[in-house]
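Tutorial sheet, problem 5. The three components below are modelled jointly, 119 residues in total.
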Amino acid sequence: MENQSKNLKKTRPDNIFERVYEIVRCIPPGRVTTYGAIARCIGSARSSRMIGWAMNSCHSQPEIPAHRVVNRNGILTGKHHFRHENLMQELLQSEGIIVEDDRVVDFIHLFWDPYKELI
DNA sequence: CGTTTGACTAGTT
DNA sequence: AAACTAGCCAAAC
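Model answer (structure tokens):
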């Protein structure tokens, strides 16, 4: 009972994290979004750093296309957290996204706004 | 239990 | 234009 809820609390990712995962899962292949956009979508616009933390824990949750989340300039800031340094870029390129110098080419047009699309 | 850190961003100097 | 600041908040130390 008490122990269980304790365990649950430890096991259960915070709601914010689940919300983040939900949004990230909704990013269509071949599109990207930003930490800030997700943060805005879950209602705390200035908590973009938490999105990064959420991604850090997302390996426990399969089916999270974390490679489609880049920073506001379309730069692959999170690439070092993948199994291999180039995995993020390879995944993006396998979806038709051109990556040059760790930056998503034509990022502005590939940007997928969860706030608009997931209202 | 206070401090530091971080896959960020927007604003100011 | 580059550097600095502040806000945010959960883990790690």
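Marking note: Helices of chain A lie at 2-11, 15-25, 35-41, 48-56, 87-94, 107-110, 114-117. Full credit if you identified this.
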